[in-house]
TrEMBL record:
Subcellular location: Cell envelope
Iron is among the record's keywords: yes
Residue ranges annotated for the 4Fe-4S ferredoxin-type domain, each copy included: 4-34, 66-97, 98-127
Cofactor note (record): Binds 4 [4Fe-4S] clusters per subunit.
Recorded GO CC terms: cell envelope
Binding site for [4Fe-4S] cluster 3: C75, C78, C83, C117
Residues holding [4Fe-4S] cluster 1: C13, C16, C19, C160
Necessary cofactors: [4Fe-4S] cluster
The name this protein goes by in its record: 4Fe-4S dicluster domain-containing protein
GO molecular function, one term: metal ion binding
Binding site for [4Fe-4S] cluster 2: C23, C141, C144, C156
Length: 275
């Protein structure tokens, strides 16, 4: 099966935010008024209603000069996605394009995908039913899979006027990234290709001018061990013995215990930090 990927060259981005606007328009996402962040950045991070954010990073380069770095921030669509592995309802799944999408009818808003995503790109959106009762559903970038199915490109790619983004066969996108890396190494000695192996590689391949951490990205993201054990070992065996519904309940209970223990542990050590 042919794999596809979005290629993002941050060195060509000029921060115009056209990708953000096109994402909002195509996916019919509501506006989210934000407090002033003290910079040109409109949103601190992606949210349930803003799946694509243009990040502005103030950075002191190797020559001691202050410069702005830009990064198109959205879901990476990991080949081995933690969100898919931890979902007790199997609401998250892979498509033929390698993208990761959410089945709204199956999602129960448990939030395990949110807590396990190494890139912090999944969020819970709040809705109200006809009786006014609130409920939650996980939401994130879909890489415009609905457009891909019609032979079109992702909305963000189509509006990028600098050519910083492309979409195509993954092998070709990696080759393009490698060629571009060779071209910019003289100007950006720390330049690298971001396609982390710890999540099996991603379907959003980045050419970064600096180390991933400069852009707020994890250097070596990995699928949590607990998620691997649950999805690849415990769940298949349990389904054979107990049935899928029972295993979903057990999975929710186990995940809740794990997350409670982690949060409790953070509190005992002076509290954890949130981005």
């Amino acid at each position: 099966m042919v794999e596809y990927a979005k290629y993002v060259d941050v060195t060509k981005c000029d921060g115009c935010r056209a990708c953000m606007v096109s994402c909002k328009n195509w996916n019919d996402l509501p506006a989210e008024p934000q407090d002033f962040l003290g910079s040109n950045q409109s949103h601190a991070k992606v949210t349930a209603n803003t799946w694509n954010v243009l990040s502005f990073i103030e950075h002191e380069n190797s020559k001691g000069n202050l410069e702005y770095l830009f990064r198109h921030s959205a879901c990476f669509h990991c080949k081995e996605a933690a969100c898919v592995k931890v979902c007790p309802e199997e609401a998250l799944h892979y498509t033929d394009f390698g993208t990761v999408v959410i089945n709204d009818e199956k999602c129960v808003g448990c939030g395990y995908c949110v807590q396990n995503c190494p890139f912090d790109v999944v969020s819970l959106a709040t809705y109200k039913d006809k009786h006014g009762k609130e409920y939650k559903k996980a939401q994130k970038c879909t890489m415009c899979t609905d457009r891909l199915e019609e032979g079109m490109q992702p909305a963000c790619v189509t509006v990028c006027h600098t050519g910083a983004m492309e979409f195509g066969e993954k092998d070709k996108m990696i080759q393009k990234a490698e060629k571009r890396l060779a071209e910019i190494k003289g100007k950006f000695p720390n330049a690298n290709i971001y396609n982390p192996a710890g999540v099996g590689g991603t379907h959003a391949i980045y050419v970064l001018a600096e180390k991933p951490s400069v852009y707020g990205l994890p250097e070596n993201p990995k699928v949590p061990t607990s998620a691997v054990i649950w999805k690849d070992y415990a769940q298949p065996i349990g389904k054979m013995m107990l049935g899928a519904t029972t295993m979903a309940v057990i999975g929710a209970y186990i995940s809740n215990k794990i997350f409670y223990k982690e949060d409790h542990g953070h509190d005992e050590n002076g509290g954890g930090s949130n981005e």
